[in-house]
Amino acid sequence: MIDLTGKRAIVFGVASEDSIAWAICKWLAKAGAKITLSYQTRFRSRLYGLTKDVDFVENMSECDVAYEEQVRDFFNSLEGKFDMIVHAIGYAPASALEKPLIYTSEADFNTALTISAYSLQRIVRHSLRKLNPNSSIITLTYLGSTRVVPGYRLMGVAKAALESFVRELSNDIGTAGHRINAISSGPIKTLAASHVPGFDNILGFMKHTAPLRRNVYQDDVGKAAVFLLSDLSSGISGQTIFVDGGFNSVALPSDIEKVTFQD
Ligand SMILES: NC(=O)c1ccc[n+]([C@@H]2O[C@H](COP(=O)([O-])OP(=O)(O)OC[C@H]3O[C@@H](n4cnc5c(N)ncnc54)[C@H](O)[C@@H]3O)[C@@H](O)[C@H]2O)c1
After folding, report:
1. pLDDT tens readout for residues 217-244
2. Within 6 Å (CB) of ligand 1, which residues are found?
3. CA-based nearest residue to 28, from 47, 9, 13, 14
4. What CATH architecture is 8-242?
5. What pTM was computed for the model?
């Protein structure tokens, strides 16, 4: 087991017990880390319910990453130094997900890209003075960044920007020994995922097609996150690591010969 005793993490993106970020918190805590949570005001009561019986959360604070001053004030309020940051934030207005990307407005584009991608740069920039040397940062992305997934639309554009930020930021912060990577998770039922049309079918196709012939779950991502946040991954930075049962490596399902398509 990885030992993170004495290490401190800041986690953005817990909204419910189904949040991928909450699973990451639990796996970090199993390894001995203490956690500071940053959450959106609208999830306050859920967060209080979730954290009331756990001993690994040392601090909790509201912060909307769409606003520069809120992220600045959040980091100003923190005492001491940290070793790990988790960015598990994604958002696109419903109006943008409901229609083809060609109809996306500039306003929706700006909102989605600011919250889902630029917020990573904003968080990393403000965090630098609070990080111990050789700290590790992760974010969460999805295959829709590089391949068309029906219904993912504007989020695919945002995730492409997010992954590019990971590569660029890794080069910016690497001189201080800090690392940053993305986990590209397979589809998992969460609040955010409930806005993707046809999500149950996406889960079914993934299970049918992935080399592991199963879906991935929050714990699969939580374990990979602990690896990437710990010293065990000391030589890895700027990468997008898939936790998707191998789905991304497959072009067609194994039983394609049984399906008839008309040409
Ligand atoms: N669930 C999936 O299938 C899946 C797959 C791949 C990647 N991801 C990514 O994982 C991350 C976490 O999502 P999740 O599936 O756990 O869902 P979730 O709904 O539990 O988490 C999304 C989080 O984003 C936060 N957020 C949105 N706008 C914000 C803002 N302006 N300021 C601060 N926080 C804000 C929400 O409060 C919430 O905590 C997202 O980046 C998502 O795109 C999810």
Report:
1. 999 999 999 999 999 999 999 999 999 9
2. 13-16, 19-21, 40, 43, 64-66, 88-91, 115, 140-142, 185, 187-188, 190-193
3. 9
4. 3-Layer(aba) Sandwich (3.40)
5. 0.98
